[in-house]
Amino acid sequence: MKITNTSTGPRGFWHKGSLRLLEKGQSAELDLSEADHRAADSTGFFAFEEDHADEGDDELDALKARADELGVEYGARIGADTLRERIAEAEKAQG
Asked: How does DSSP assign 2-31, residue by residue?
């Protein structure tokens, strides 16, 4: 989870039994416990973003499956945007 200090100065919060300090506007990627998340959120000093990395992997897997159906070739390191473009070209070519 990404936590960002949105206050006008440095602010702290508890993370795994230790006090963490973030400067104004600073962010950190942390695995906050539910209790630590609630406590930090209750201050009103922080914004939180959930980690959606797994969702991106799911999307890429779905794109690869569609590319395989269409016979689109791709390398192991292809990104979702490039693969999406190749799929659109293949679908357009099929009419």
From this structure: EEEE-SSS-EEEEETTEEEEE-TT-EEE--
Minimal CA–CA distance to 2: which of 74, 56, 53, 69?
Answer: 53
Query: pLDDT tens digit string along 1-57?
Result: 899 999 999 999 999 999 999 999 999 999 889 999 999 999 999 999 876 555 567
Report the alpha-carbon distance of residue 24 to residue 45 in Å, rounded: 10
- The answer to whether the Cα torsion of 40, 41, 45, 51 is positive or negative is positive
Q: Which residues contact 39 (CB under 8 A, 6 or more apart)?
A: 13, 14
Residue 90 pLDDT: 94
